[in-house]
C-alpha cells in the first residue's frame, strides 16, 4: 500500500516547533514533499533536517503569515521547487495574553487576529490560486476547541479561532466543485511549547492538572495526535470530507 501522502507537495506553516513540527515529520513519513514556513527560520531548519533524515524532499521559507507578500512568496517557492501544490496545513498561530475583554487593547486584538485569522486568509488565497492551476488540492486550517467554546480572558483568541472556522467553510463551499477541499482541525489542549510557556507562569500554578481534568480522556493531547489527523484530512482517504469542524480534543467539546 502506498503511503497516504505519496507524491503530494504540501505547505506547513508554524513548522519550527509544536504541532507544525510534528505535522512535518508525520507528512514526511507519509510520503509528502514539504515547504516548511515559520518566522523562526532556525527552528524551521531544525525541523527540515529531521524531515530530510526521514527521506523527504523539503524547502524552508522564512515567512510571517500576517504579511501577504511573504505568504505569496512561500507558495511561489513551493511551486518553483516542486512544480505544483497539492496540500497545505495552515497552522501558524499565537496565543492570547490573558487580558479581560474590557481591558483588551486594539494592538493586542490585532496582534492575535493578524496572525491567527488574517494569516489563514492570506494562506488560503495564495494556496487556492496555485491549486486551481493544477486541478485541485486539500487544505487543513488549525482552529481550536476555543473556536467553538470560550474561556475567560481570551476574547481575541476565541474570536480568531471562530473566524478560522467560518473562513474554512467559506472556502470549502466556494471551491469544493473545483476540486479543493478545506477543513478545520479543532485541537483540545496539546503539549507544545505554547502550552508549556503558559502553565510555567507563576500565576497559572495548578492550571496543568485542571486542564488535564477538563478533557474526558484525562490528559492533554500530543502534537503527533493532531499531525496524524492532518495527514488523513490531506490524503485522498478523506476525499468526501469538506467544510468540516474536525475535533481532535479528547472529548473536550463533548462536555
Ligand atoms: P507553538 O508551539 O507556539 O508553535 C507555533 C509556531 O508558529 C511557532 O514556531 C511560531 O514561531 C510560529 N508562528 C507564530 N506566528 C507566526 C507568524 N506570524 N508567521 C509564521 N509563523 C508563526 O504553537 P502550537 O501549540 O504548536 O500551536 C499551533 C497551532 O495550533 C496554533 O494555531 C494554535 O493556536 C493552535 N492550537 C494549539 C493548541 C495547543 O494546546 N497547543 C490548542 C488549540 C489550537 P515563534 O516560536 O517564533 O513564535
TrEMBL record:
Highest rank taxon of the organism: Bacteria
Keyword Repeat: no
Domain called Ketoreductase: residue spans: 8-193
Keyword Repressor carried by entry: no
Pfam short name (any one): adh_short_C2
Family as reported in the entry's similarity comment: Belongs to the short-chain dehydrogenases/reductases (SDR) family.
Keywords of the record: NAD, Oxidoreductase
InterPro entries, A to Z: KR_dom, NAD(P)-bd_dom_sf, Sc_DH/Rdtase_CS, SDR_fam
Stated name of the protein: Oxidoreductase
Gene3D superfamilies to which the protein is assigned, alphabetical: NAD(P)-binding Rossmann-like Domain
GO terms of molecular function: oxidoreductase activity
Amino acid at each position: 500500500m502506498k503511503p497516504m501522502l505519496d507524491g503530494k507537495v504540501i505547505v506547513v506553516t508554524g513548522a519550527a516547533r509544536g504541532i507544525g513540527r510534528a505535522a512535518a515529520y508525520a507528512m514526511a513519513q507519509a510520503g509528502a514533499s514539504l515547504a516548511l514556513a515559520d518566522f523562526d527560520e532556525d527552528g524551521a531548519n531544525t525541523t527540515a533536517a529531521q524531515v530530510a533524515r526521514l527521506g523527504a524532499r523539503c524547502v524552508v521559507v522564512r515567512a510571517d503569515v500576517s504579511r501577504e507578500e511573504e505568504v505569496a512568496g512561500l507558495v511561489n517557492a513551493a511551486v518553483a521547487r516542486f512544480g505544483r501544490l497539492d496540500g497545505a496545513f495552515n497552522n501558524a498561530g499565537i496565543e492570547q495574553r490573558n487580558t479581560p475583554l474590557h481591558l483588551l487593547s486594539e494592538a493586542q486584538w490585532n496582534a492575535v487576529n493578524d496572525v491567527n485569522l488574517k494569516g489563514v486568509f492570506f494562506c488560503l488565497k495564495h494556496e487556492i490560486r496555485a491549486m486551481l492551476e493544477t486541478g485541485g488540492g486539500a487544505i487543513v486550517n488549525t482552529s481550536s476547541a476555543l473556536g467553538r467554546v470560550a474561556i475567560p480572558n481570551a476574547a481575541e483568541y476565541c474570536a480568531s479561532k471562530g473566524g478560522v472556522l467560518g473562513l474554512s467553510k467559506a472556502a470549502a463551499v466556494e471551491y469544493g466543485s473545483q476540486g479543493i477541499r478545506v477543513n478545520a482541525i479543532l485541537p483540545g489542549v496539546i503539549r507544545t511549547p505554547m502550552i508549556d510557556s503558559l502553565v510555567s507562569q507563576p500565576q497559572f500554578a495548578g492550571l496543568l492538572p485542571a486542564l488535564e481534568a477538563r478533557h474526558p480522556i484525562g490528559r492533554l493531547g500530543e502534537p503527533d495526535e493532531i499531525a496524524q489527523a492532518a495527514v488523513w484530512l490531506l490524503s485522498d482517504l478523506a476525499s468526501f470530507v469538506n467544510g468540516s469542524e474536525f475535533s481532535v480534543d479528547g472529548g473536550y467539546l463533548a462536555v
